[in-house]
Design brief:
alpha/beta; about 240 residues; Rossmann fold; 8 helices; about 35% helix
Protein backbone atom coordinates (compact mmCIF):
# COMPACT_ATOMS: atom_id res chain seq x y z
CA UNK A 1 0.00 0.00 0.00
CA UNK A 2 1.34 3.42 -1.00
CA UNK A 3 1.45 5.83 1.95
CA UNK A 4 2.04 9.58 2.16
CA UNK A 5 3.77 11.23 5.07
CA UNK A 6 1.64 13.51 7.23
CA UNK A 7 4.60 15.79 7.90
CA UNK A 8 4.38 14.85 11.58
CA UNK A 9 7.01 12.21 12.34
CA UNK A 10 5.26 10.92 15.46
CA UNK A 11 1.98 10.46 13.61
CA UNK A 12 3.75 8.69 10.76
CA UNK A 13 5.13 6.26 13.32
CA UNK A 14 1.62 5.56 14.63
CA UNK A 15 0.45 5.05 11.04
CA UNK A 16 3.40 2.82 10.11
CA UNK A 17 4.45 5.29 7.43
CA UNK A 18 1.62 7.69 6.69
CA UNK A 19 -1.95 7.86 5.38
CA UNK A 20 -3.09 5.90 2.29
CA UNK A 21 -2.18 7.66 -0.95
CA UNK A 22 -5.66 7.12 -2.42
CA UNK A 23 -7.69 7.17 0.80
CA UNK A 24 -9.95 9.58 2.67
CA UNK A 25 -9.00 10.11 6.31
CA UNK A 26 -11.54 11.67 8.68
CA UNK A 27 -9.99 13.79 11.42
CA UNK A 28 -12.37 13.99 14.38
CA UNK A 29 -12.08 16.46 17.24
CA UNK A 30 -13.89 19.13 19.20
CA UNK A 31 -13.15 22.82 18.66
CA UNK A 32 -9.66 23.79 19.76
CA UNK A 33 -8.12 20.34 19.64
CA UNK A 34 -5.73 21.15 16.78
CA UNK A 35 -7.35 19.21 13.95
CA UNK A 36 -7.15 22.14 11.50
CA UNK A 37 -3.46 22.56 12.25
CA UNK A 38 -2.87 18.88 11.60
CA UNK A 39 -4.63 19.16 8.23
CA UNK A 40 -2.63 22.27 7.38
CA UNK A 41 0.63 20.55 8.29
CA UNK A 42 -0.32 17.60 6.09
CA UNK A 43 -1.00 19.96 3.18
CA UNK A 44 2.23 21.88 3.74
CA UNK A 45 4.21 18.63 3.71
CA UNK A 46 3.04 18.07 0.16
CA UNK A 47 3.00 21.65 -1.12
CA UNK A 48 6.59 22.53 -0.28
CA UNK A 49 7.75 19.25 -1.82
CA UNK A 50 5.95 20.30 -5.01
CA UNK A 51 3.19 17.69 -4.74
CA UNK A 52 -0.14 18.61 -6.29
CA UNK A 53 -2.41 19.94 -3.54
CA UNK A 54 -6.04 21.13 -3.29
CA UNK A 55 -7.31 23.05 -0.27
CA UNK A 56 -11.06 23.53 0.22
CA UNK A 57 -11.57 26.05 2.98
CA UNK A 58 -14.91 26.68 4.64
CA UNK A 59 -14.07 27.97 8.12
CA UNK A 60 -12.33 31.22 7.26
CA UNK A 61 -11.22 33.35 4.33
CA UNK A 62 -8.06 33.08 2.24
CA UNK A 63 -6.15 35.95 3.89
CA UNK A 64 -6.69 34.53 7.37
CA UNK A 65 -5.59 31.07 6.24
CA UNK A 66 -2.41 32.51 4.76
CA UNK A 67 -1.64 34.19 8.08
CA UNK A 68 -2.31 30.95 9.98
CA UNK A 69 0.17 29.11 7.79
CA UNK A 70 2.73 31.89 8.16
CA UNK A 71 2.53 31.54 11.97
CA UNK A 72 4.59 28.39 11.39
CA UNK A 73 6.71 29.86 8.56
CA UNK A 74 4.75 27.92 5.95
CA UNK A 75 4.48 30.31 3.02
CA UNK A 76 1.84 28.74 0.79
CA UNK A 77 1.56 31.86 -1.39
CA UNK A 78 4.68 30.78 -3.30
CA UNK A 79 2.83 27.72 -4.59
CA UNK A 80 -0.60 29.12 -5.45
CA UNK A 81 -1.28 28.84 -9.15
CA UNK A 82 1.51 26.29 -9.48
CA UNK A 83 1.01 23.04 -7.57
CA UNK A 84 -1.61 24.44 -5.15
CA UNK A 85 -5.26 25.30 -5.80
CA UNK A 86 -7.30 26.92 -3.04
CA UNK A 87 -11.07 26.57 -3.36
CA UNK A 88 -12.67 29.42 -1.45
CA UNK A 89 -15.81 28.09 0.18
CA UNK A 90 -16.19 30.71 2.89
CA UNK A 91 -16.67 34.14 1.37
CA UNK A 92 -20.04 33.45 -0.31
CA UNK A 93 -21.70 34.29 3.02
CA UNK A 94 -19.76 37.55 3.34
CA UNK A 95 -20.04 39.95 0.38
CA UNK A 96 -17.29 42.19 1.75
CA UNK A 97 -14.79 39.33 1.56
CA UNK A 98 -16.11 38.18 -1.81
CA UNK A 99 -15.43 41.60 -3.28
CA UNK A 100 -11.76 41.33 -2.24
CA UNK A 101 -11.09 38.11 -4.14
CA UNK A 102 -8.51 38.70 -6.86
CA UNK A 103 -9.70 38.19 -10.42
CA UNK A 104 -7.36 35.23 -10.97
CA UNK A 105 -8.81 33.49 -7.89
CA UNK A 106 -12.48 33.87 -8.79
CA UNK A 107 -12.52 30.68 -10.88
CA UNK A 108 -12.19 28.70 -7.64
CA UNK A 109 -14.45 30.83 -5.44
CA UNK A 110 -17.98 29.80 -4.46
CA UNK A 111 -20.48 32.64 -4.79
CA UNK A 112 -23.20 30.41 -3.28
CA UNK A 113 -23.17 27.23 -1.23
CA UNK A 114 -23.82 24.69 -3.96
CA UNK A 115 -22.35 21.22 -3.42
CA UNK A 116 -22.61 20.33 -7.11
CA UNK A 117 -20.56 23.43 -7.88
CA UNK A 118 -18.10 22.50 -5.14
CA UNK A 119 -17.61 19.04 -6.66
CA UNK A 120 -17.10 20.71 -10.04
CA UNK A 121 -14.41 23.02 -8.63
CA UNK A 122 -12.72 20.09 -6.88
CA UNK A 123 -12.60 17.97 -10.02
CA UNK A 124 -11.47 20.90 -12.15
CA UNK A 125 -8.66 21.80 -9.73
CA UNK A 126 -7.31 18.26 -9.42
CA UNK A 127 -7.53 17.60 -13.17
CA UNK A 128 -5.67 20.85 -13.90
CA UNK A 129 -2.95 19.91 -11.43
CA UNK A 130 -2.72 16.25 -12.42
CA UNK A 131 -2.88 12.94 -10.60
CA UNK A 132 -1.10 11.98 -7.38
CA UNK A 133 -1.59 14.67 -4.77
CA UNK A 134 -3.18 15.79 -1.53
CA UNK A 135 -6.47 17.38 -0.62
CA UNK A 136 -7.82 18.81 2.62
CA UNK A 137 -11.31 20.01 3.39
CA UNK A 138 -11.31 22.16 6.52
CA UNK A 139 -13.95 21.64 7.55
CA UNK A 140 -16.97 19.61 6.59
CA UNK A 141 -18.59 20.68 9.87
CA UNK A 142 -19.46 24.02 8.28
CA UNK A 143 -21.28 22.28 5.44
CA UNK A 144 -23.46 20.41 7.94
CA UNK A 145 -24.18 23.66 9.81
CA UNK A 146 -24.85 25.91 6.83
CA UNK A 147 -26.84 23.47 4.70
CA UNK A 148 -28.84 21.84 7.47
CA UNK A 149 -29.15 18.76 5.28
CA UNK A 150 -27.04 15.83 6.45
CA UNK A 151 -27.90 13.59 3.49
CA UNK A 152 -26.67 16.13 0.93
CA UNK A 153 -23.40 16.63 2.79
CA UNK A 154 -22.82 12.88 3.10
CA UNK A 155 -23.48 12.41 -0.62
CA UNK A 156 -20.96 15.14 -1.34
CA UNK A 157 -18.45 13.39 0.91
CA UNK A 158 -18.89 10.08 -0.92
CA UNK A 159 -18.64 11.72 -4.35
CA UNK A 160 -15.47 13.53 -3.33
CA UNK A 161 -13.98 10.33 -1.93
CA UNK A 162 -14.62 8.31 -5.09
CA UNK A 163 -13.26 10.98 -7.42
CA UNK A 164 -10.14 11.75 -5.36
CA UNK A 165 -9.32 8.07 -4.92
CA UNK A 166 -9.43 7.69 -8.70
CA UNK A 167 -6.94 10.55 -9.03
CA UNK A 168 -4.70 8.97 -6.34
CA UNK A 169 -5.20 11.90 -3.99
CA UNK A 170 -4.68 11.44 -0.27
CA UNK A 171 -7.43 13.37 1.49
CA UNK A 172 -7.89 14.62 5.04
CA UNK A 173 -11.25 16.07 6.10
CA UNK A 174 -11.81 17.68 9.50
CA UNK A 175 -15.06 17.19 11.41
CA UNK A 176 -16.27 18.38 14.81
CA UNK A 177 -18.65 15.64 16.06
CA UNK A 178 -20.51 18.21 18.16
CA UNK A 179 -21.78 20.15 15.14
CA UNK A 180 -24.27 17.57 13.85
CA UNK A 181 -26.19 14.51 14.99
CA UNK A 182 -24.58 11.22 15.96
CA UNK A 183 -26.08 9.46 12.94
CA UNK A 184 -24.41 11.90 10.51
CA UNK A 185 -21.06 11.52 12.27
CA UNK A 186 -21.34 7.73 12.17
CA UNK A 187 -22.22 7.84 8.48
CA UNK A 188 -19.19 10.04 7.73
CA UNK A 189 -17.01 7.59 9.65
CA UNK A 190 -18.45 4.77 7.56
CA UNK A 191 -17.58 6.58 4.32
CA UNK A 192 -14.00 7.32 5.40
CA UNK A 193 -11.13 4.90 4.80
CA UNK A 194 -9.36 5.91 7.99
CA UNK A 195 -10.16 7.78 11.20
CA UNK A 196 -7.88 9.82 13.46
CA UNK A 197 -9.20 11.33 16.70
CA UNK A 198 -7.94 14.25 18.78
CA UNK A 199 -9.27 15.04 22.25
CA UNK A 200 -8.73 17.44 25.13
CA UNK A 201 -8.48 16.08 28.66
CA UNK A 202 -7.94 17.68 32.03
CA UNK A 203 -4.30 17.48 33.09
CA UNK A 204 -2.86 18.02 36.53
CA UNK A 205 -3.73 21.20 38.42
CA UNK A 206 -0.78 23.09 36.92
CA UNK A 207 -1.11 21.63 33.41
CA UNK A 208 -4.55 22.68 32.20
CA UNK A 209 -6.07 20.97 29.18
CA UNK A 210 -3.88 18.39 27.45
CA UNK A 211 -4.20 17.32 23.81
CA UNK A 212 -4.12 13.65 22.89
CA UNK A 213 -4.33 11.81 19.56
CA UNK A 214 -4.97 8.27 18.42
CA UNK A 215 -5.48 6.39 15.19
CA UNK A 216 -8.91 4.83 15.49
CA UNK A 217 -9.04 3.04 12.15
CA UNK A 218 -6.78 2.71 9.11
CA UNK A 219 -6.43 0.12 6.32
CA UNK A 220 -2.82 -0.64 7.25
CA UNK A 221 -1.53 -1.69 10.66
CA UNK A 222 -1.34 1.13 13.19
CA UNK A 223 -0.85 2.06 16.83
CA UNK A 224 -4.29 2.74 18.34
CA UNK A 225 -3.22 4.03 21.79
CA UNK A 226 -3.71 7.64 22.89
CA UNK A 227 -0.54 9.76 22.67
CA UNK A 228 0.34 13.26 23.83
CA UNK A 229 -0.02 15.98 21.18
CA UNK A 230 1.67 19.38 21.49
CA UNK A 231 1.64 22.57 19.44
CA UNK A 232 5.12 23.99 18.88
CA UNK A 233 6.46 26.88 16.74
CA UNK A 234 7.18 24.28 14.05
CA UNK A 235 3.78 22.63 14.13
CA UNK A 236 2.37 19.59 15.89
CA UNK A 237 4.59 17.15 17.73
CA UNK A 238 3.43 13.74 18.98
CA UNK A 239 5.16 12.03 21.87
CA UNK A 240 5.89 8.52 20.62
CA UNK A 241 8.52 6.41 22.35
Amino acid sequence: MELRSTGISGLDKLLRGGVPADGLTLLLGDAGTGKSLLAHQFLWEGVHKEENSVFILTETHREAITRLFMDFNWDITKYEGKNLRIIEGFTFSYPDFLAKIEEEDREFTLSALNLDKLIHLLTTASIQLGENGRCIIDSISDLFILLGNDIRVLRFLRRAKVFLAGENYSTIITLDPQTQGTVATRAAMHIADGIIEIRLREGKADEGLQREIRVRAMPQGHDSAWHSLNITPKGLVIDVK
